[in-house]
């Protein structure tokens, strides 16, 4: 029998002094579910990458441990399951650990597997196609007899509580089924597409279901569970509940136009878009020190693509900016709209200690520093950065010399320092003026407006966002002017350096992305040209000005009032079936930004007052 090579990653493992397992992190408490629900009690799981830097992976590890699993922090013989991040393959693990084969007693599955088991409150078969990892087949990596199919264990079947009707219709099992197979008789094979029904005794019988019955059984089994169970953090769950509460619940069988609510409702006053930000008092804010620490945590979660925690921190920071008094306790923090219980604890810790332990821990890990560095490369997201870390790359030089990079990633690596620099406000204006002059030399009616953080009054920006529009022109006409005439001229002049991404010519895309540099400068800057039809200009300007919390608040308020707001306009008479839109509705306004505010009943907020 051939087994995998076991690389020893610690002296303790070499000496056989015991497995490197984690039952509990030092900075968190795992709350185990009741013993009868610990479906992973016999599991020893090795996650790959095997760290909890990624918020999503950290949550998967936590939930697996809550359901009884042990987390193996090192590669040891007692591992039962290997859980791979998406986009990673068997070859990634083999290369990283120096393996030739996966030991036969180990099961390799993708990251979906633990969450699905928890959804169904049962250990599912790892041989299902949706759980397989590229490069490895179910149960045949290192078996003694690969040609022999493996028998699925009874625990791999989905255990469901039978309905009263099914119990009445199910015939009594035969004595042979109740007593089990006779001596020397092969056990009955599990039939695909069946479920195991458990009665009051420990006997089992298999009931074949057709496709419809399976779907109904699955729906009943999971009806009490939230969507994306493992991917929903406490902050996300709170946000989900808030948004669900703000939309009108409907019977899925009914389909009707939503009614537009009056614009002077008291409930609307608490929305972020209804609050006026006092920019003059920003530097004198009594909670300035607390905000600075929370901002560092916000930056950390932004780098990790943790959308819901990023949103929660931004809302809390916005609330503290507007609060006139210094917040010194958890109780005071909880009294502020937009601050939840967990953030209130952190605010109190910052006030009492002038630091935040969670931030200290986040900033100390080597993996996080590498992720931050790799994510600074244009064209590299969190998934790609995590994959590079898992593959053993430890520097930009490593990537340049050894990694397989796309064209855009090569450019992002070569211009890493340029793209990482903030762009001063005066330089953003210079880029805008140069592009405006080039476009208007071709068509004098075209307008070029600088959007993004520049329009909100920021002293610097990450890139240059330019909205290109022309009254009375459609998207195709504007694209033709810019893509066919203006951009080639800007390349010839030496202003544009490279095109990074262009939306499809025949599609709905409306953006050109590239890099440029001003005359006399060697620094490349990221440049986005956004093509906007005249009839959508007001809505697009509102959307691309931001910030994201202000936009989110406006969209949620519009939904509450029975309307829909997006970058193309404000619509009414929107028909919905549950949360899903069935039609786009009727356009109320798209050209005039101020008119959209009026229709929503929101006082006009100048761009610099939208930094929620």
Automatic annotation (TrEMBL):
Active site: 346 (nucleophile)
Keyword S-adenosyl-L-methionine: no
Location (main, coarse): nucleus
Keyword Lyase annotated: yes
All residue ranges annotated as the BRCT domain in the record: 35-131
Catalytic activity: DNA(n) + a 2'-deoxyribonucleoside 5'-triphosphate = DNA(n+1) + diphosphate
Comp. bias regions, Low complexity: 146-161
Enzyme nomenclature, EC number: 2.7.7.7
GO cellular component: nucleus
Residues forming coiled coils: none
SUPFAM superfamilies the UniProt entry points to: DNA polymerase beta, N-terminal domain-like (SSF47802), Nucleotidyltransferase (SSF81301), PsbU/PolX domain-like (SSF81585)
Region of interest called Disordered, as start-end residue ranges on this chain: 1-20, 137-186, 237-258
Chain intervals with Polar residues compositional bias: 1-12, 243-252
GO MF: DNA binding; DNA-directed DNA polymerase activity; lyase activity; metal ion binding
GO biological process: DNA replication; double-strand break repair via nonhomologous end joining
InterPro entries: BRCT_dom, BRCT_dom_sf, DNA-dir_DNA_pol_X, DNA_pol-X_BS, DNA_pol_B_palm_palm, DNA_pol_lambd_fingers_domain, DNA_pol_lamdba_lyase_dom_sf, DNA_Pol_thumb_sf
Cofactors that this protein relies on: Mn(2+)
Keyword annotations from UniProtKB, A to Z: DNA damage, DNA repair, DNA replication, DNA synthesis, DNA-binding, DNA-directed DNA polymerase, Lyase, Nucleotidyltransferase, Nucleus, Transferase
Domain of life where this protein originates: Eukaryota
Subcellular localization(s) per the UniProt record: Nucleus
Family (UniProt): Belongs to the DNA polymerase type-X family.
Described function: DNA polymerase that functions in several pathways of DNA repair. Involved in base excision repair (BER) responsible for repair of lesions that give rise to abasic (AP) sites in DNA. Also contributes to DNA double-strand break repair by non-homologous end joining and homologous recombination. Has both template-dependent and template-independent (terminal transferase) DNA polymerase activities. Has also a 5'-deoxyribose-5-phosphate lyase (dRP lyase) activity.
Protein name: DNA polymerase
Organism: Penicillium ucsense
């Amino acid at each position: 029998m051939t087994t995998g090579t076991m690389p020893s990653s610690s002296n303790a493992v070499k000496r056989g002094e015991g497995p490197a397992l984690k039952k509990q992190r030092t900075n968190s408490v795992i709350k185990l579910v009741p013993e009868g629900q610990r479906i992973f009690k016999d599991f020893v799981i090795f996650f790959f990458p095997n760290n909890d830097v990624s918020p999503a992976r950290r949550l998967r590890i936590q939930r697996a441990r809550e359901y009884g699993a042990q987390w193996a922090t090192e590669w040891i013989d007692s591992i039962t399951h290997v859980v791979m991040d998406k986009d990673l393959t068997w070859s990634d693990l083999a290369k990283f650990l120096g393996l030739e084969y996966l030991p036969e007693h180990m099961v390799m599955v993708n990251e979906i597997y633990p969450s699905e088991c928890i959804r169904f409150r049962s250990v599912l078969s790892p041989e299902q196609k949706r759980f397989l990892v590229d490069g490895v087949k179910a149960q045949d990596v290192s078996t003694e007899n690969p040609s022999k199919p493996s028998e699925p264990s009874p625990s791999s079947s989905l255990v469901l509580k039978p309905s009263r009707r099914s119990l009445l219709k199910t015939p009594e099992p035969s004595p042979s089924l109740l007593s089990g197979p006779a001596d020397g008789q092969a056990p009955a094979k599990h039939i695909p597409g069946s479920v195991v029904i458990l009665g009051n005794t420990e006997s089992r019988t298999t009931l074949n279901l057709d496709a419809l019955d399976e779907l109904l059984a699955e729906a009943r089994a999971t009806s009490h569970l939230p969507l994306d169970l493992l991917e929903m953090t406490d902050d996300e769950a709170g946000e989900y509940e808030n948004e669900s509460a703000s939309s009108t619940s409907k019977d899925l069988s009914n389909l009707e136009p939503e009614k537009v609510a009056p614009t002077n409702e008291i409930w609307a006053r608490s929305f972020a878009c209804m609050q006026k930000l006092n920019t003059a008092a920003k530097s004198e804010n009594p909670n300035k020190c607390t905000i600075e620490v929370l901002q560092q945590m916000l930056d950390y979660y932004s780098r990790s693509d943790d959308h819901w925690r990023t949103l929660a921190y931004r809302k809390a920071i916005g609330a503290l900016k507007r609060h006139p008094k210094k917040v010194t306790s958890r109780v005071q923090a909880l009294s502020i709209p937009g601050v939840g219980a967990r953030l209130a604890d952190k605010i109190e810790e910052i006030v009492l200690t002038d630091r935040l332990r969670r931030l200290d821990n986040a900033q100390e890990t080597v993996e996080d520093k590498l992720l931050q560095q790799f994510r600074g490369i244009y064209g590299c997201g969190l998934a790609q950065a995590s994959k590079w870390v898992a593959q053993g790359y430890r520097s930009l030089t490593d990537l340049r010399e050894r990694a397989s990079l796309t064209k855009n990633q090569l450019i992002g690596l070569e211009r890493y320092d340029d793209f990482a620099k903030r762009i001063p406000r005066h330089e953003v204006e210079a880029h805008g003026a140069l592009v405006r002059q080039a476009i208007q030399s071709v068509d004098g009616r075209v307008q070029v407006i600088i959007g993004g953080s520049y329009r909100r009054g920021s002293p610097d920006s990450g890139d240059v966002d330019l909205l290109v529009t022309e009254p009375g022109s459609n998207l195709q006409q504007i694209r033709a002017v810019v893509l066919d005439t203006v951009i080639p001229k800007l390349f010839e002049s030496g202003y544009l350096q490279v095109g990074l991404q262009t939306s499809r010519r025949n599609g709905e895309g409306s953006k050109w992305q590239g890099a440029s540099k001003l005359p006399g400068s060697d620094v490349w800057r990221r440049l986005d040209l956004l093509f906007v039809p005249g009839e959508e200009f007001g809505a697009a300007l509102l959307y691309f000005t931001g910030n994201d919390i202000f936009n989110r608040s406006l969209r949620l308020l519009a939904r509450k009032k029975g309307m829909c707001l997006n970058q193309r306009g404000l619509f009414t008479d929107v028909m919905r079936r549950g949360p899903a839109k069935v039609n786009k509705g009727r356009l109320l306004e798209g050209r005039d930004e101020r008119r959209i505010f009026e229709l929503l009943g929101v006082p006009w907020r100048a761009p610099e007052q939208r930094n929620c």
